[in-house]
Automatic annotation (TrEMBL):
Name used for this protein in its record: Ribose 1,5-bisphosphate phosphokinase PhnN
Listed pathway(s): Metabolic intermediate biosynthesis; 5-phospho-alpha-D-ribose 1-diphosphate biosynthesis; 5-phospho-alpha-D-ribose 1-diphosphate from D-ribose 5-phosphate (route II): step 3/3
Residues that hold ATP according to the record: 13-20
Species this protein is from: Oceanicella actignis
Gene Ontology biological process: 5-phosphoribose 1-diphosphate biosynthetic process; organic phosphonate metabolic process
Uppermost EC category: transferase
Catalytic activity annotation: alpha-D-ribose 1,5-bisphosphate + ATP = 5-phospho-alpha-D-ribose 1-diphosphate + ADP
Length: 188
């Protein structure tokens, strides 16, 4: 894959850690940042993040057409990152997508300059957030909490952000991670 002028960022972490909340807050502060709208084989009524709902059959057709630059399976669903993000990157703009820890090695192989941002939170915080969103049963929440302990794939380096405390603290860390050159200039 050719080197892009813009930066591609993957934000990953367990369900309920606040990835989408952090992404929206960062986009409000960084108007040039593109939040990539994922395509997911999940019902539109499921709520939560801003995503494009599609059927498994439609997802398979789009995948065969080359409509996704990245795709993966998680939690019994198919996820895709639309290929139109390449136009944004070629125009020199940064793009951020909500990814999966399991797909990072493949994503990094395709996009060597990909920056990974790993968001974490204490288990009791995750449990409360998962229960509050009301999408999963108690058994599904327990399974998600067990998966939360899974780390990053071997060899993948990431910027770590703890979202256990005040949201503003984690937002500041994410905004700084998305502006590495500005952060370096301000430290001089």
């Amino acid at each position: 894959m050719p080197e892009m002028a813009g930066r591609l960022y993957a934000i990953v972490g367990p369900s309920g850690v606040g990835k989408d909340t952090l992404m929206r807050a960062a986009a409000r502060r960084l108007p040039g940042l593109r939040l990539v709208r994922r395509v997911i084989t999940r019902s539109a009524e499921a709520g939560g993040e801003d995503f494009e709902s599609t059927s498994e059959a439609d997802f398979a057709r789009r995948l065969a057409r080359g409509d996704f630059i990245l795709h993966w399976q998680a939690h019994g669903l198919s996820y895709g990152i639309p290929a139109d993000v390449l136009d944004f990157l070629e125009a020199g703009r940064p793009a951020l997508f909500n990814g999966s820890r399991a797909m990072l090695a493949e994503a990094k192989a395709q996009f060597p300059a990909l920056e990974a941002i790993h968001v974490t939170a204490r288990p009791e915080i995750l449990a409360a957030r998962l229960a509050a969103r009301g999408r999963e049963s108690a058994e599904e929440i327990a399974a998600r909490l067990a998966r939360a302990k899974i780390g990053l794939p071997p060899g993948i380096k990431a910027i770590e952000i703890d979202n256990s405390g005040p949201l503003e603290t984690a937002v500041e860390a994410l905004v700084a991670a998305l502006q590495p050159e500005s952060a370096k200039r301000s430290m001089r």
